[in-house]
Amino acid sequence: MKIGEMVKVSVQNRSAVLSTNMYPNEPKTYVYEGEIVKGPSWLGNDFVCIKTGKLDALDREDVKFVNLKNVISVNDSDFSFENEPAKSEDKIVMVTGSKGDQYTVTLKDDGTASCTCAGYGWRGKCKHIEQAKEK
Questions:
Q1: Three-state secondary structure string covering the chain
Q2: How many CB atoms lie within 10 A of CB 37?
Q3: pLDDT value of residue 83
Q4: Cβ atoms within 10 Å of 135's Cβ, excluding its own
């Protein structure tokens, strides 16, 4: 699954599996349809974000954060997180900041990047990423 791709994802409802006696009407699976969008860097590689095109209770665009370990199928084809290819194309670069601090920049194969500095955490961009791209 890549950013911008339109998908239909079936996800196992973990709470229904764990509490069938307490909530017998709880659905066993959820189905989300929409566009894969870039998620926050703190989610990591185990999650994917799907913009459904609907509005949530606060009239914001509805984005589902889906744990890939709970995905059953994508576009009606079976899916296994364990069989997904490793993200070996990602490039890890150590960058020294202006005050001598070391930061880890990850340049991903899909063109996105992340940094361990506080600026990236707040703004989602920083000068360290540009430095890493030049290396």
A1: CCCCCEEEEEEECHHHHHCCCCCCCCCCEEEEEEEEECCCHHHCCCEEEEEEEEECCCCCEEEEEEEHHHEEEECCEECCHHHCCCCCCCEEEEEECCCCCEEEEEECCCCCEEECCHHHHHHCCCHHHHHHHHC
A2: 14
A3: 46
A4: 10
Give domain limits for the chain: 6-83, 91-134
What does the pLDDT look like over 7-21, one tens digit per residue? 999 988 876 555 556
Would you state the structure tokens that stand for residue 66, as one six-digit string? 């889906």
CA–CA distance, 99 with 110 (Å, rounded to integer): 30
Please enumerate in sequence order all residues whose Cβ is within 8 A of that of 62, keeping only pairs 6 or more positions apart, or say none. Answer: 51, 52, 53, 54, 55, 56
Spatial contact of 114 and 122, defined as CB atoms under 8 Å apart: no
Contact (CB, 8 A) for 12 and 79: no
Task: Tell me, yes or no, if the pTM score tops 0.85.
Answer: no
Rg (CA), the chain: 18
